[in-house]
Amino acid sequence: MKKLKIEFKWAIVFTITLLAWMLLEKTLGWHEENIANHWWLTMLFAPFAIFIYLLAVREKRRRVYNKKMTWLQGFISGTILSVFVALLSPIAQYLTHNYITPEYFNTVIEYSVTNDLMTRTKANDYFNITNYMWQSAFGALGFGIVTAAIVAVFTRKK
Fold first, then answer.
1. Rg of the Cα trace of the chain?
2. Would you call 150 helix, strand, or coil by DSSP?
3. Residue-number span of the structural domain to which 150 is assigned
């Protein structure tokens, strides 16, 4: 576990940052009156996520690989970070939807049904904590691996 300490630390930083972002979204009304724009506004978190991956892989390069790192070493470190983020993401979803914005699912379901985007049954099946926990875990893994591949290009050093 000692070899994975850096990745685990940054996964915790990522999760805390994500929770802070959810609080910001809630505060700015993206989970209520601006729910129609939530789908694209939430993508504004991507630069922060990429930046955290960059910091994590740079720390790994500095502390473990003596300031030299191949693309593969950076990619593996970023992928491990992605696995930890994916494992922590259901906890983040639980905290988000139970403490930060407990009315989110009701709001988004009503919006989807009122605007004829989904039937109530489909909306109920899609917008729930279980589905969001799975989506966040697989999304974090997929997005994280792609991010790791890109960040590794910029952090490699001979």
1. 18
2. helix
3. 2-155
User: What is the block-wise mean pLDDT of the chain (158 residues), using blocks of 10 residues?
Assistant: 90 98 97 94 96 98 95 98 98 98 97 96 97 97 98 94
pLDDT at 103: 97
Count up the domains in the chain and report the number: 1
Please report the DSSP string for 69-118 in residue order: B-HHHHHHHHHHHHHHHHHHHHHHHHHIIIII-TTHHHHHHHHHHHTTSS
Phi-psi region of 50 (alpha: psi -120 to 50; beta: other; left: phi over 0): alpha
The pLDDT, as a whole number, for residue 3 is: 84
Helix 5-27 vs helix 46-63: angle between axes, to the nearest 10 degrees? Answer: 160
Contact (Cβ atoms closer than 8 angstroms) between residue 50 and residue 151: yes
Task: Output phi, psi for 69, to 5 deg.
Answer: -155, 135
Work out the burial of residue 124: count CB atoms within 10 Å of its CB; fewer than 13 is exposed, 13-18 middle, 19 or more buried.
Answer: middle
CB 41, CB 117: distance < 8 Å: no
The tokens of 133 are what?
Answer: 């926990």
| C-alpha distances out from residue 41 to 5, 22, 113, 117, Å | 32, 11, 21, 19
